[in-house]
């Protein structure tokens, strides 16, 4: 296990590279609802392997969101339709390492007699089950690992692979804002730009595709803001009816609330058409929103978590969540880092 | 003139570097209301010149905004108090080239028998009046030019200079989002990160220090949005009274409006306490907002420009600007890239 967790040593990396070099047919698998890191890393690795003359299939449980059209234009992201997988020698899991996260593909993938290679930057939650791994938990994005793999294989990246790597990086660093943005991240982004990536065009493709109704809806959502604990806690609750919030991108609401200096925790509550309330929680400090979300049956990370409060009205959900958050805020030792 | 506009040739750059090498006392001047590019470039050049054993004063007409505390902690940004300037051999104008933009310092600066050196990445609006210039209009930020100067002088950057350069770059590229974000920009950002800059800490220092009143004011500002030309033009006009907009960061309003897919041009008009209206114009396409701003006596870049419409009421300013913008939008050949 020592060579798999949390960062591979040179020998393990070398075995992973051998798996790529010596085999011919590759299946690149992503996690359910693949994000830009997953899709970008798949795109880049596919181009690298194809440049080596390999056969490559990308197959995910879900199709890419429309914002990733800029990648899907040049790369075929297959969607698993059930049944057997294409015959392949090596299945590469990119940006995750739990078989279950391939969704409906999991049984077919497990049944297939291929070698399993994990390329990831997350801390593996369980014991290694794969054949080989190329893991570095300090890497800001899986795409960065694909960049390293290409270099170690001595292969140049073409513009599509470069776009994949850049997409990976900006997805997982919040466009170079999060604390994982290191010198390698920016240097690789520079290199990819030199290879043809247009950062502003990519930004527009990923983030400037809001509908006309988004800013007015954003304004109405911000009008629902309430502060608690002197501003340390910001809460926005969005009712289903009356505010015409269909065009709203709630990620941007969360961003604006996080931009307030005093705010430590943001809770965004959205009444669901199916009943109940969806919580999105964000932390700017060591406050652990994952712990908060878990109390309501949710999950996530320390700084970003969510939950669905089934059967609660918006007012009930708000009351319970504010109470729980205030309690946690007043107990810094439990929630501190 | 040919060596000054728009980008210096090697001989002109060499003369500019000689001015820095052979003189002893430097006054680094910024423009009124200095932004992060100006302040960051001043900070970086000050450290470089000090490393050469020079005496350096930074003097601006206005103090840095509090968001630049992270720079001002280690660099003294002097504020012009009237009267004579410190005795100096060379005055360096960073991030601008019009003497008038030094505000109240202008007469004293003109009267002082120093050599005048312009370090800038803007298109000079008039004939050269300075002694030497180090100008590259393709450079994403003035801080990038200071980086080049340091390299050409053979000087390493210390962590404070690196923070200055990084601050310059992120200020003028909208945190690596604008179309001026090129490979050099990202490579220098990577280099500065290697020299000690913490991108996420800088982001928090610059952009996550909004007052509690910012999100509600943001919401009220967004309620003023009007679209024209089917959404290609977005206009927000902010009256002085009635909306309690003191806490508003208008840059974020501009960002949200640019995130709308159909929007090509954003005009933000703000009624001034001193009378008149301030325009901030942004373009997402080849539409040249600099050309638009110039028609109203303003300046800037193709994608970001501004002007002050003295004597106009908010309604008058809006009417004139919308008319001019619609006219330009319907004449793509003139405004196209």
Describe, in plain words, how this protein is organized in 3D.
The structure is a homodimer of 337-residue chains. With 337 residues, chain A is an alpha/beta fold. Chain A folds into two domains: 203 residues, inorganic pyrophosphatase (n-terminal core), CATH 3.90.1640; 122 residues, Diaminopimelate Epimerase, Chain A, domain 1 (Roll). In chain A, strands 3-2-1-4-5-6 form a six-stranded parallel sheet. A six-stranded mixed sheet of chain A has the order 7-8-9-10-12-11, with helices on both faces. In chain A, helix 10 links the parallel strand 8 and strand 9. The first copy, chain A, starts with 9 loop residues before the first helix and ends with a helix. The interface between A and B is large, with 52 and 53 residues.
């Amino acid at each position: 296990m020592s060579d798999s967790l949390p960062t591979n040593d040179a020998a393990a990396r070398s075995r992973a590279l051998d798996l790529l070099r010596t085999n011919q047919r590759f299946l690149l698998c992503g996690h359910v609802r693949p994000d830009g890191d997953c899709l970008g890393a798949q795109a880049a690795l596919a181009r690298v392997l194809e440049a080596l003359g390999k056969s490559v299939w990308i197959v995910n449980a879900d199709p890419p969101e429309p914002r990733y059209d800029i990648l899907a234009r040049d790369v075929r992201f297959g969607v698993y339709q059930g049944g057997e997988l294409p015959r392949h020698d090596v299945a590469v899991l990119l940006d995750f390492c739990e078989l279950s996260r391939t969704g409906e593909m999991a049984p077919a993938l497990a049944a297939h007699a291929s070698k399993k290679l994990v390329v990831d930057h997350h801390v593996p939650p369980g014991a290694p089950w794969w054949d080989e791994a190329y893991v570095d938990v300090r890497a800001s994005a899986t795409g960065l690992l694909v960049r390293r793999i290409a270099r170690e294989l001595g292969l140049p990246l073409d513009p599509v692979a470069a776009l994949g790597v850049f997409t990976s990086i900006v997805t997982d660093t919040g466009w170079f804002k999060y604390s994982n943005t290191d010198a390698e991240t920016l240097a690789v982004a520079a290199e990819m730009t030199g290879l043809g990536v247009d950062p502003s065009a990519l930004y527009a493709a990923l983030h400037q595709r809001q509908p006309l109704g988004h800013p007015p809806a954003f304004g109405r959502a911000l009008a629902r803001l309430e502060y608690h604990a002197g501003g340390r806690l910001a809460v926005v609750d969005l009712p289903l009816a009356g505010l015409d919030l269909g065009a709203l991108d709630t990620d941007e609401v969360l961003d604006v609330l996080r931009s307030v200096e005093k705010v430590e925790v943001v809770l965004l509550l959205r009444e669901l058409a199916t009943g109940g309330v969806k919580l999105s929680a964000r932390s700017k400090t060591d406050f652990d929103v994952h712990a908060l979300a878990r109390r309501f049956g949710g999950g996530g990370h320390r700084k970003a978590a969510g939950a669905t409060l089934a059967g609660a009205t918006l007012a009930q959900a708000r009351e319970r969540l504010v109470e729980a958050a205030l309690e946690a805020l007043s107990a810094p030792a439990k929630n501190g880092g």
